[in-house]
Amino acid sequence: MPGRHGSNNGTLLLPGAAIVANSKRSLVAEFEVLAQDILGLLRQVGNQMVDLSKAAAAVTQAIRAGTAACAHHNVSALQLSPTTCPALATVLKVVLHFADNLLFGLPYASARSLLLRCAIDLGVKLKLIPSSAAAAVAGVDAPFPQLGNFAVSQAYYDNPDSEPVRSLAKLEKLMNLLPQSAALAEQDGAFVAPIARGFSEKFSVLSVLFGIPNPSVNHLQSVAKLWDVADDIHFFCQKNRIMVCASTSTRSKTSQSSPPSLSLSSSLPSSRSKVSLTGFKAPYRISTAEVPPMSMSIANEDAETLSGTLGGYVYPKVDPTDPNLSAYSQSAFAMTCAHVCLTETRARRPPVSIPSPVLVNMYREGLLREYSRYALHSEERRAFKRAIAALDADYPRQNGRSVPAKFGEVLWGERVLCHGMISDVAIIRCRQGLKPVANNLGDDVPFAEYDPSLMFRNLTVCNVVKRLTPGLQVFKYGSASKFTTGRLNGPRLIYWADGTLQSSEFVVAASDVGAHAGMFATGGDSGAWILRKHGVSGLGVVGMLHAYDGEHREFGLFTPMTRILERLHEVTGIEWGVVGVKHGGGTNNDGDDDDDEEQEILGGSETSQSSRQDSGLDYSSSSDIDI
Q1: How many domains does the chain have?
Q2: Which one is catalytic: 121, 232, 424, 549?
Q3: Does some domain include residue 524?
Q4: Three-class SS of 180-228
């Protein structure tokens, strides 16, 4: 017999705890009834037994009643959320299904808005949406309430016997089946992304996003029919596609781009400039450092359209006294994506430049275009003429193009499918005399304006993150989208590219509650290293960005650094390290030091036996490497 305020297993409950437990059971029961009621309405819509607008109104009214029931409980003490209350996850899933899959177009705009606002009120009542952000989420300053996508975080993995873990297991099982759909194979760039969707990280449910480059009505209807596969997993479809992160600016596109602007602040010119650039801001970083910092723009010297981002520097772990390998220790090496440097050339070892010649010439064309718009003797015309003269002083014209100084040459690169995942890496041998001693973000960008902690040692890479924790907060600085933040997603994204099904780890852009239009990457960011803060002792490198979702730009696909290094070791037999990282300098998923030896490599091979595919890129084979 349990005692007063006791339990059957003999655990004593304090009176306050008993009240909370009873209150929680009571509110959970309310949500269970609510979930069954609105699921019934959804089934009636599916069977065409009720009008869609009337069903949406009935669901809205039912959720409003559930929100009112919360007033009789201390919701702060109950700590209910979709991950702790399956019925609440079902309620939210039904709301999302109506919003994403049923209430399309202007005829249903009002019904959709009312339903979402009602769900937001419930989230605020349960303390899952901060009241300070409720107005933004509810669309007070925007036409409609906002839904957002979030990373599947560690909360879904923590307790092995919990409901979230079971839901995640269902999701992962579905992810093994969904790629067999013809909808993926028929369109290059189509993808399936397992994420969380809702109004905030705490008020969201597991979801499966189908990104289709050109979705048809049949695609939308097919995805909508998946609603009854699982009560706590949401399915939806959007126009989207996976693309490489290299910019594809062309001269015709450049002519339509935004012109350079005059501003009250001045952009510091290169130390070589003899003409003032006051008032002009180049669309690329300009560093006067002897060794270019990480995340500078980069492209091969002859590139017309493709531009990317320098990741960072690597070094050979070789014995300098070994006559066969000693030459490696005399050179410096850098890393970016192969498709950035090799797509537009068939040269054996194409030279590359920093900053990107593509961006420099795009900028010069924009200056010329604006120069020609103004009257002959106007001050504006003279200002643009001075800016063009300064640019030509920094980057002398050769064969009708502005060419920055040579940074190095591509020693090796590959873009091939390896074990179901893309290997997209280029290793650059830096010009003679360049001796990086650290991977540093540089002082030409005020990183502390983005994050106050990014100062001093927190601008330098000190380790390689070996184990990836779902929900881990990361950031990157790309030459196009600049500083962006996000969180690592748990399950991998699956996509169709180059006629083959592929998978990749990915980052979901971080968004403030109520501002869900977060961006993580765009064209021109390929090669940027994904980084995480490591307390006050420096940065950890997580991986290298290679692709993104072209329509919304909120997913950044990356290859973990450990996998890149393993691949490079596999094809060359030479072990390399990340410059500035001590031997064995890795971190586990908690960010603590890891005693396992770091595996970091580089080298050259056309392809391995397991990944022999034609990528359309020009490679140097391992036997051809001459330092």
Answers
A1: 2
A2: 424
A3: yes
A4: HCHHHHCCCCCEEEEEEEECCCCCEEEEEEEEECCCCHHHHHHHHHHHH
